[in-house]
Specification:
metal ion binding, metal-binding, six-stranded mixed β-sheet, alpha/beta, Calcineurin-like_PHP, Purple Acid Phosphatase, chain A, domain 2, 30% helix, 362 residues, disordered C terminus
Length: 362
């Protein structure tokens, strides 16, 4: 149970993000594209990590989720892509979210991206599901790494340590109903649902081959079975390997992230494996981002997000509270996060059910 001080810290932070949403909507209506970001204090980080770590323990060893569900791939510190995605589907009230990992590194706003998702997890613990990516492990120091980002922002080493301990509690996989396995990477020769259920948390050991296979493996169309991965970790797995895994574990599909996909989405092996890549800017290279929205196993939409322009921290104003520019408060149930900026943040949907160009799951 949260004490009053902790509840106040987290509630105020969540409301600041909610106000940030409304403020940005108002700026858009006025034709402005000012970039702002909520300030994140050490006190908030330490409190949030402690509280969400306890929520992860309730999710272990295997997250379970239900339809309707939005599935988000790698974000890599791109807070403004996250803003667009939440804008598309709304707050996690009528829809569940599964985040496939790789929240940090490479992008300009790893801290803000991760904290925003953690606040959503804290506020909607049964609707927001996070799984661990290969970047949610202790990182090296250097440009583009989360550890260095925190140092450059003036945080003390214990802040990074708090995140590392949080990462150790994030579940490795999620089951969407009983048919779909969501993981960050893929599978290896020894991967089974039972092996996921047998994992003991906190997961501190990076040398565990079973964990690394789920985090690092990639599908391939050049081999039918398993092959050596050029990444040096995990495996390449082909159609036969995927089919055998699904059959032996009573599953119908794998949904994963991990791989850079220039168009944001790729279907493998006649639709039995789907890859989603959600950031629209990988390092300095623009690409199309994508997310999945599933109403059922057969009925899913692929939503595409045109590339954002580069947005650097030096362009963004960090705020602790927002100017009162809203003409009228929006009804809470209608509050969503907007598309930023308006002119270049096109969201395109390929749908099975809506009028327009359709795609059919293979």
């Amino acid at each position: 149970m949260e004490d009053d001080d902790d509840l106040s810290i987290l509630s105020n932070a969540f409301e600041l993000y909610r106000s940030f949403v409304d403020y940005t909507q108002t700026l858009q209506k006025n034709g402005k594209n000012d970039f702002i970001i909520p300030r994140i204090t050490k006190e908030l980080i330490m409190t949030l990590c402690d509280k969400v770590k306890q929520l992860f323990k309730n999710d272990q060893p295997l997250v379970t989720a239900n339809f309707p569900c939005a599935i988000i791939g790698d974000l890599h510190g791109n807070i403004y892509d996250l803003v667009r995605i939440i804008s598309k589907y709304g707050m996690p009230i009528a829809v569940e979210y599964i985040f496939l990992g790789d929240y940090v590194d490479r992008g300009q706003f790893s801290l803000e991206t991760l904290v925003f998702i953690l606040l959503l997890k804290w506020r909607f613990p049964r609707k927001v599901h996070m799984i661990r990516g290969n970047h949610e492990f202790p990182s090296r120091e250097g440009p583009g790494y989360f550890r260095t980002d925190l140092q450059d922002l003036g945080y003390t080493p214990d802040v990074y340590d708090a995140f590392v301990h949080l990462f150790e509690e994030i579940p490795i996989a999620a089951l969407l109903t009983k048919d779909i396995l969501c993981v960050h990477g893929g599978i290896g020769p020894g991967s089974t649902l039972e092996s996921l259920k047998m994992l003991k948390y906190p997961l501190c050991e990076k040398k565990n081959d079973n964990i690394m296979d789920f985090l690092w493996s990639d599908p391939t169309e050049l081999s039918e079975d398993f092959d050596i991965s050029p990444r040096g970790k995990g495996w390449l797995f082909g159609r036969n390997a995927c089919s055998k895994f699904l059959s032996e574990n009573n599953l119908k599909r794998i949904i994963r992230g991990h791989s850079f996909i220039e168009t944001g989405f790729k279907s493998y092996f006649h639709g039995s494996l789907l890859t989603i890549y959600s950031t629209s800017r990988s390092i300095k290279q623009p690409n199309i981002g994508a997310t999945l929205y599933l109403k059922s196993f057969e009925n899913y939409n692929v939503d595409y997000y045109d590339p954002l322009p580069p947005i650097y921290r030096s362009q963004v104003k960090v705020i602790s509270e927002l100017p009162r520019l809203l003409p009228l408060p929006m009804p809470r149930e209608k509050r969503t996060i907007p598309v930023v900026p308006v002119k270049i943040c096109l969201v395109r949907r390929h749908s099975l059910t809506q009028v327009g160009r359709r795609i059919t799951p293979p």
